[in-house]
Automatic annotation (TrEMBL), chains A, B, C, D:
Gene3D superfamilies: Transcriptional Coactivator Pc4, Chain A. It holds the Pfam family Whirly. One of its GO terms (biological process) is regulation of DNA-templated transcription. The keyword Zinc does not apply. InterPro entries: ssDNA-bd_transcriptional_reg, Whirly. This is Single-stranded DNA-binding protein WHY2, mitochondrial. Belongs to the Whirly family. Keywords: DNA-binding, Transit peptide. It comes from Punica granatum (Pomegranate). SUPFAM superfamilies: ssDNA-binding transcriptional regulator domain. The gene is LOC116187635. It comes from the Eukaryota. One of its GO terms (molecular function) is single-stranded DNA binding.
């Protein structure tokens, strides 16, 4: 199986005033044959806003890192942010979470150059492709951080995951072609079956958190008997109403 | 494997005064050959009551949504509600949770008609069928929201999940035949293997929450040494007593 | 694969003053060929004590129940209880948790006789056997609630899980032979693949909670920088010390 | 598949002032053919510091233990510790967690000698190897607690997991060769398929906690709208910045 995804990312802030949040999904091989280029609210950036909420999200530093001969690779979950509904009656996902992969090259024995790190943020659906990889499967994801801006196509990132021929693990590679900086980087980190198992287990654990679904829990809600104020009947969808 | 389930839903409120809660399970192919048409307390609606508790359940908006050429599909967990026991000594599931699937058609490039959305609420057991689907399996669920009312059979909903022939994902279709409105809708959304992996992982995560089992956790209980008041010995069942 | 477990349960309270807690494991086919009949602290009962802590554990009522033509079956997790260490510096599992299965027969169409219910409490290891069952596997567990008392052998319970021949699910049967009451009961409930998937997913979710491992979480511990008082160096085992 | 890992452990405290934490990974068969001997901050010990934080980590006693004819084996998760960032704006993993395995021999019928216990602390990656073991796979891990000290090579520990020939479970063996004490111990515990399923499920559950990823949860963060103070822009990495 070869999975190929193409995530087109908007660099401008998408209004989330609509009732639904566009999901961070885009791919070249649409099963209906369409060319739908999906909107992605997950990575919309708003300058100051990002700095503010970003700092909240990044407060825990517990990356899973593998150090190899030529480079290092770390995984860190980034949680979504929420905004209050104007009705005052709920929270809605504002910026979706992701699994941040960081690659940085070795510059000597057990020395690594953090300044040369390259980043790739896996969306929920890309995590889905990642955790469903079989031992002989490979996959590749493409990101264009500048899509739909005047710089579209200037920076192209591609993450590929390929199995070792002897089945003992995978090669994980990040390629970054930056026409603006006239640079081209490729960092490859081999991971063992055991390390990959950690990544898959940890990503499966983190996925619902990245989606914001850890908020759907009985523990966080008002106790039984409490009266919710300002019920907005527009929001109450029941299967039986339609 | 072809799984076929038929959930008969009561539209009236079932009394939960009994010690046990009827589970949301019904299916055509009963292994004992019976024609048992199971009661389902999960979706019982009580007008005002539903509005009140529904608003509590719906306060988090973090759907997983896939936008495709002809339609969009979102999944959102809906948590159960609890009522206090009359003895004051516990909580019992009142309305069971579900996984709400929403379908709405495209009406142009990247434009979708939210007003035409159709809903289908997967019960715990239907989620069980969903998450155990293999790559070549299909399944179909049937709901009659008006069952056991004078409108029984007037609205028939059917959700089907069928694999792509090339193994690259699934078609998820919702058909709604509404004799009252003389309408017939069918919305199909193709999902990739990666998107389906997200749905399965997220549904597996959400299932215990939908069942109310996230309440069974050491953290929520009184600290060791605290005295529970009003112990109701009727409720204390031990294997060794019988 | 046919797994056969035999859990011998002590009916007297086992002292837990030792540093380790005997685990609820016993089985006929010991891989070393021994006949070790394991101690089981999990179900030790202490009359009043059980009533007191039992009421804490049973305060949530969210069973997963399947109603079939001839009988009904429900699963409910039972959490462990903890006692404070005498040093005041920790909590130790006192009574281990289990997955309580309850069976009760039908006495008419959609009518069930709760008074005739029979119970079987799956230990952590029996849950392990349950969740690792493949589609064609079967297993059987044996319990003697009165083991090591003068009534040993008087009551014998056996739970068996066998696949349907067409692979569409399992038969779950509980047999109870009670020589004291001169009674012999056998209740069988067929479960579909979907229902079994719910049970497996829910049991996998519940297992760490039943073991008390949900207590091992960063969130519950003192904040960084807080000083733990009364450090008991006896308890601090490091791999490097031995 | 035969997996062989070699974890080299530093006995001195590693400075964690760098932005990244070296991960507890080391193995003989580096896929790139290198001989990279990875640093491991996870088990660094700092005397008093360890005692202090260790007592916090060890406060819950809920081991999963199997008692067999010749020896007993228990598993207990050990959580990581965190330190506050100097900026006051976050927490960073200080000491990584592990899965502590303890072996102790039988000295009679149902009597075990706790004083002769031997310990082996599985790192995150070793847990990854453990939980991805298939029914016919085996694996072996090597630890040298004194590596990079003058006592390097004096104590060698090796944990091996091998399947029973009939597929009914595994043998788990710990060998400890201590040249300083002129001692050589080998303790083997057979575990059934059911017991191994408990270990795998429990280790999969515990892995994210051991990695500190249970801290990445929406519930622990400031409410939406709260202002984080002292945002350190150095820490805010976005995929789009590089």
């Amino acid at each position: 199986m070869k999975t190929s995804l193409f995530s087109s990312i908007l660099s401008r802030r998408i209004s989330l005033a609509e009732i639904f949040v566009p999901c961070n999904v885009g791919h070249l091989r649409d099963a209906l044959g369409g060319h739908a280029c999906m909107r992605n609210a997950a990575y919309s950036t708003g300058g100051q806003n990002f700095a503010a909420t970003g700092s909240i999200m990044d407060r825990i530093f517990a990356p899973y890192t593998v150090y190899k001969g030529k480079a290092a690779l770390s995984l860190t979950p980034v949680l979504p942010t929420f905004t209050k509904l104007e009705s005052g009656n709920g929270l809605r996902v504002d910026r979706r979470g992701n699994m941040m992969m960081k690659f940085w090259p070795a510059i000597g024995e057990r020395k690594y150059d953090w300044e040369k790190r390259q980043l790739f943020a896996l969306s929920a659906t890309e995590i889905g492709a990642f955790i469903s990889l079989g031992p002989t499967d490979s996959c590749e994801f493409f990101h264009d951080p500048s899509m739909k801006t005047s710089n579209a196509g200037q920076v192209r990132k591609s993450l590929s995951i390929k199995p070792h021929q002897d089945g003992s693990g995978y090669f994980i590679s990040l390629s970054v072609v930056n026409n603006l900086l006239k640079s081209m980087d490729r960092i490859t980190v081999p991971v063992t079956t055991a390390e990959f198992a950690v990544m898959k287990t940890a990503c499966s654990f983190a996925l619902p958190h990245i989606m914001g679904w850890d908020r759907y829990t009985s523990h966080q809600r008002p106790r039984v008997g409490e009266n919710p104020s300002k019920v907005n009947p527009q929001m109450l969808d029941s299967e039986w109403d339609r």
